[in-house]
Amino acid sequence: MADEDGGLRGKTTLQPPALTSCLLYTIPRKRAKNNGQDPSPDSISTQTTPWITAHGSKSTIAVSDDICVELVDLSDASEARNRPKKIIQTQNKVLAMAFSNCGEFVAVADDAGTLSLYRSNGTLVFGHRIVAANGSDKVVAVKFASSERKTSSQETQTLVVVTKLGVLLQLGNLRLVEVEQVLLDKPKGALNVILGTIGFKRTNVGGLKEDTTSCLLVRSSVEPPVYVHRFEAEETIILGNHAAFLSVWKTLEGDERTGIEKVSSCDSRQDPVEAMAFDANCNLLVILSKGILTWWNWRDMTEMVEADTCGIMSFAVIRDCGDEQSGSLIAVARSTESERRTLEIIFFPHPESDHAGAARVLSKVDPSEESEGHSCTDVALFASASDTGSSQALAACRTDEGVDILLLTSDDTLENEANQSFYSESSEASFDMDRVAIAEALVDVPVASTKNIVTPERCVVQVRRSKHVIVQMDDVPATTQLLIS
C-alpha cells in the first residue's frame, strides 16, 4: 500500500486531517445468569450482535438487549456521555429494524413474526404478523427503499423484508401519514383498510447460506447483506449470501403475481459476503470478503478492482473526495499481524481512475487508547454524518469489559484547498479540504463485521436526522395474519 504511515508524497506541504476518537459510552458485559461465568462470545454474523445504520446529519443510537431498547442522543457528541439514556421495554425479541427514507418512521421485526411500524417518537402506527410464530423461518433483514433525493413523510414508502428461508416480501404504496389518519378516524376497521392499500409483492430468493451474515444495507444498506435502492424509477434489491454470493432483483410494476424478478447473480466465490455498501458515487458496489475490499458493477455482476489492503474487519463509506470526486473516503477497522486493532481513514480511488486499487492511509488511531487501557479485540464500524464540516464514523469496539462506542472525527481544517486532490497528474499528493457536510444524501449505511464482538447486550444502532428516536414495542395490537412462511 502506498505510504503506510499516512504521510503524503510529493512537494505539497498539505497534511490530511488528523483522526481523533472519543468514547461516547460503554455497554457493560453481561454475566451468565446462573453461574456467574461469562457467556460464550457471540459472533458479529449472528442475529444476537450489533447491526448499524446511519441516517441524516443527526445521530441517535439505539442499543437493544433482546427486548430492551436503550436510546442515546448523539446530536451533540460532547454531551452524549452525560446525557440520560432512555430505556424502553419491548414484548418480543427484536430481530431487525430500519428507518424510513424520510427518517420519520421506524420498522421493527420481532421473533413473534410481527412487523411493526412506529413514528420516530415511539408512537406505534400499526403491527402485522408476516411470519408464523415459533416456526422454522424468521426475518433476517428489513429495509425501506432509499432514494437519491431527500423525501418527506408525506411521500409513498416501500419496505422490503427478507427471511432466513429466502422469502422476500415487498410492501409498497405505504402512505404512512395517511395510515395514521385512518387509525384515528376508523380505529376498529383500520387494519383492513390499511392492508387494502398496501401493495404486497413476494418471491423466493433462496435460503440464507449456513454460517453467513444476513444483514440489511440500504443505499447504504444491507446484510445478508440486502441492499435496496432506487434507480431510474425501478427498485433494485441486492442480496448477499442467499443461495449465491450475490444476486440482483428488481420489482415489476403491475405484476400482481410476484412483482419481483431476478436480474443477475454471481456464485463464483466460496467465501461469503461479510459486508457491502454502495461506493460514495453510488454507481458501484463495495464488498468486503475475506478481509479484502472489492468494487463491483452490480448491474452485470462483474468485479472491477480489488483494493491493495487486507485484514479489514469492517468498513463504512463516508463520502466522495479528491479532485473531481475521484475517490471515496472510507473508515476501516483493520487487524494487524500482531493482533492489534486500528481504526483508519483511507482514500480509495474510484476503479475508473489511473490509481484504481491504490489505497492510501490518511490517519489512524488505536481504539484501546480510548477504552481505558482495555485491549480492543473486535470492531464494527458505521458511518455518521456531521453538520460541522468534519468526517465522522462510529465504532463499536469489544473489550473484556463490554462494548465501547467511539466517535471518530477527521477534521477538514484547510477549507481553502477544496480543489486540491489526493493524486495530481505529476504524482504530487494533496488533500481535498471540502467542508461539505458528510453524507447528507446518505440515508443508511449499515455495516457488518466478520469478527467476534461480545455484545453482552445485543446492539441495534440507528443513526438519523432528528435528535431523539424512541422505538416502542409495548402493546402491539392484535392483527390479522399474512403468513409468508
Automatic annotation (TrEMBL):
Gene3D superfamilies: YVTN repeat-like/Quinoprotein amine dehydrogenase. Residues 47-349 form the KNTC1 N-terminal domain. It comes from the Eukaryota. This is KNTC1 N-terminal domain-containing protein. InterPro entries: KNTC1_N, WD40/YVTN_repeat-like_dom_sf, WD40_repeat_dom_sf. Transmembrane segments: none annotated.
